[in-house]
Amino acid sequence: MRRWWMVLTILIGLALGAWLLLDPPRPVLNLLKRVDPSPETGAMLVERYGCRRCHRIGDRGGILAPDLNGITRRVDDPAHVVLRLWLRNPQAIKPGTAMPNFHLSDSEIEAILAYLKAVDARQP
Fold first, then answer.
1. What are the E-state strand segments in the chain?
2. In this structure, which CATH number among 3.30.70.1620, 1.10.760.10, 3.30.460.40, 3.30.1360.20 belongs to the domain 24-122?
């Protein structure tokens, strides 16, 4: 009987661990992935997550996905709510999109938006 409980405990632990790795809840992301929401941190995150592999940002990047130059100025959403929701979970906004869910924390999202705003401010 004792062995059965140990196996059950291990299986529950593995299932919980897999859930936390594959689809961590927002409070866990915000706790574990807290960053300074500055443009400098946003630039580092853009590189870490490989955003330029698909998107053009500034004078560098790919052409597989939308050009992000001017994105903070051209959306009809001064609070950038849609951009925040998109970065939070692209599949929730547009099911089937090629953009993966990077499971960004709220502070990572703010940092990336701060970086995109800074890039847009430098462009005419």
1. 56-57, 60-61
2. 1.10.760.10
